[in-house]
Amino acid sequence: DVTYYAEHPRVANRLALPSQLPEVVAALLAAKGLGMSRIAVDVQHPILTGAQRYLPEMTLRPAMAEMRSLRWVKHAEELQTMRDLAALTDWVQDRYRENIRPGRLVQELDHAMAALMVEEAARRFAGEDFEIMKCWTLTGPASASPHGDGAACGSRIAKGDTIVNLVLPRLNGLYVENERTWFCGQPSDEQARFYSVAALATDAAVAAAVVGRRVCDMDAAAQAVIESAGCGDYVFHRTGHAVGLMLHEYPEDMAFNTRPLLAGEVYSSEPGLYVYGLGGFRLDDTVVVGEVPEVMVKTPKTLSYATVSL
């Protein structure tokens, strides 16, 4: 049951002003026979708590934990939506690979790729709710910070750069992540080694996304690969998080969460290495928990694919 409300303070048939919304909500609840009910809420929104002034016998019961758990497992329709969206991100990553070149403005590249994504999404998802949340690229030493150096304006790709990019859209309320690392020209031996470790760590976390294993086992698997390669000092970002109605869906505490993984949960697998002065190395797959994990993102992780020939 949805009630649509649009703010419009007209004189005739005047609607409520924002300050009067608690009264509107109270009236709607009373009309539904909920004036003396107990209502479970995930957050204490001021409009809803304000409605209690008009419905003193109504009780709001905090139920954040219970409501969060409802979002862990995705149903079949949600999973198919996310698969379709992941396929679009693969298409966009192919376009990135075609368009990376020395001298190109990073922000211009991202906006150009976003424009291509809008056009392709219109062909695939006409009439659906599609949004681009981010097309984002970090190049060179700035990519050694997981979230950049805060000075992207005017940044240009240079020959030899390590490049980390993120393609992040949302379709019908559901997110998918696809991050890859690229090289503008042939990578050095050092770049290739860090890339290989990051890719192996991503695959290890994915392989641990098995029903019955613990959430934290995904992080532990990635960290074991990184530590065994002697790269533990280059970890400055978490291995991953759940993905769904929010980008950083519950649970977010992957490294510390000991509950068993459930079939149909969806996680990002994005362990990375961040080497000061050289760059970042992160490959992010969106994976479905199962008896055999399903990787939704299909963009190749081979070094040859990640190398953009000049």
Would you give an account of this structure?
The chain is α+β, with helices and mostly antiparallel strands and 310 residues long. The protein folds into 2 domains: 18-68, no CATH class; 76-308, Creatine Amidinohydrolase (Alpha-Beta Complex), CATH 3.90.230.10. The chain is 33% helix and 18% strand. It is built from 8 helices and 12 strands. The protein has helices at residues 21-31, 46-51, 64-69, 76-99, 106-124, 189-207, 215-228, 303-306; strands at 38-41, 59-62, 130-139, 162-171, 174-175, 178-184, 266-269, 272-275, 279-282, 285-288, 294-295, 307-308. Strands 3, 4, 5, 6 and 12 form a 5-stranded mixed β-sheet that branches. Strands 7-10-11 form a 3-stranded antiparallel β-sheet. A two-stranded parallel ribbon has the order 1-2. A hairpin with a 3-residue loop joins strand 8 (272-275) and strand 9. Helix 4 packs across helix 5 (106-124) and helix 6 (189-207) packs antiparallel against helix 7. The longest helix has 24 residues, at 76-99. It is globular. The model has no long low-confidence stretch (mean pLDDT 95).
Task: Reconstruct the topology from this structure.
Blueprint (H helix, E strand, L loop, with lengths): L20 H11 L6 E4 L4 H6 L7 E4 L1 H6 L6 H24 L6 H19 L5 E10 L22 E10 L2 E2 L2 E7 L4 H19 L7 H14 L37 E4 L2 E4 L3 E4 L2 E4 L5 E2 L7 H4 E2 L2
Parallel strand pairs: 1-2, 6-12
Antiparallel strand pairs: 3-4, 4-5, 4-6, 7-10, 8-9, 10-11
Helix pairs in contact: 4-5, 6-7
